[in-house]
């Protein structure tokens, strides 16, 4: 349903992704792994329309969406939970949730959905988001995935910097989300957990895909090589 076809993309400093093709099928979880700087965040930015590729295509449900703005992709069901959470720390939890709801989605309903998914947020609606714990802030960021009524959610290192117990909780939410038939594209530093969740794995090494397959087929050597390869460069 979400497809990147032969995508090359980067910044004024140079190309980052080179001829990358990746598919997130309906109702599946895809894990995107790779060393720091491999281009994972850049790939998610292309997939959500924040960055236009230099060449190649972004397709959604078979339709060419290349160069379309992120708002348009969001309206079509692409929900991006960015690295660094993307929440507004000085606003209340309730206002953050209302802002997460894209145009056309009822804000009261959004609030209800978020609280249903994360009861802890319901207890803190009037608290400023920036004063919550890291785990609670991450839950607020993840609430976006419930509020936006997405078809596919792009998750950029959502367990970053959190205590193992909270990471466990976050993975329970991701599993729940996936079980509702929503597709996930997950960039994750916890490789073992990502592999447990995923139906398909892609490994990116310095902007090129070096592995595509199912988690059961991947060797630890292949993973280690891609990470060490990236670090050694
Ligand atoms: N806005 C930008 N302008 C210029 N270069 C950028 C920009 N964002 C990222 N880069 C560069 O693009 C390359 C890939 O970065 P990206 O953030 O996509 O990697 P990543 O795999 O997500 O890394 P990490 O795991 O460290 O988050 C890096 O060399 C980075 O410095």
From TrEMBL:
Keyword Calcium applies? no
Where in the numbering of this chain does the ABC transporter domain appear?
A: 2-231
Which molecular-function annotation in GO is an example for this chain? ATP binding
Answer whether the UniProt record assigns the keyword ATP-binding to this protein: yes
Gene3D superfamilies documented for this protein:
P-loop containing nucleotide triphosphate hydrolases
Entry keywords, A to Z: Amino-acid transport, ATP-binding, Nucleotide-binding, Transport
Q: Which Pfam families match?
A: ABC_tran (PF00005)
Which SMART domains does this chain map to? Answer: AAA
Similarity section: Belongs to the ABC transporter superfamily.
**What is this protein's record name?**
ABC transporter ATP-binding protein
Source species, please? Sporichthya brevicatena
């Amino acid at each position: 349903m979400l497809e990147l076809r032969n995508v090359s993309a980067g910044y004024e400093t140079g190309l980052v992704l080179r001829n990358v093709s990746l598919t997130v099928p309906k109702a599946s979880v895809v894990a995107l792994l790779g060393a720091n700087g491999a281009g994972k965040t850049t790939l998610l930015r292309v997939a959500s329309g924040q960055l236009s590729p230099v060449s190649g295509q972004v397709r959604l449900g078979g339709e060419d969406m290349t160069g379309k703005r992120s708002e348009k992709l969001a309206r079509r069901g692409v929900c991006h939970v960015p690295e660094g959470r993307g929440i507004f720390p000085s606003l209340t939890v309730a206002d953050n949730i209302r802002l997460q709801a894209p145009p056309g989605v009822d804000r009261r309903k959004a609030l209800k959905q978020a609280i249903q998914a994360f009861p802890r947020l319901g207890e803190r609606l009037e608290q400023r988001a920036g004063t919550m714990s890291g785990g609670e802030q991450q839950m607020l960021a993840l609430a976006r995935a419930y509020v936006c009524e997405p078809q596919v959610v792009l998750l950029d290192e959502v367990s970053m910097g959190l205590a193992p117990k909270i990471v466990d909780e976050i993975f329970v939410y991701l599993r729940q989300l996936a079980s509702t038939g929503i597709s996930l594209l997950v960039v994750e530093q916890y490789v073992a957990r990502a592999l447990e969740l995923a139906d398909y794995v892609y490994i990116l090494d310095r902007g090129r895909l070096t592995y595509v397959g199912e988690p059961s087929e991947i060797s630890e050597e292949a993973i280690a090589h891609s990470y060490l390869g990236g670090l050694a460069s």
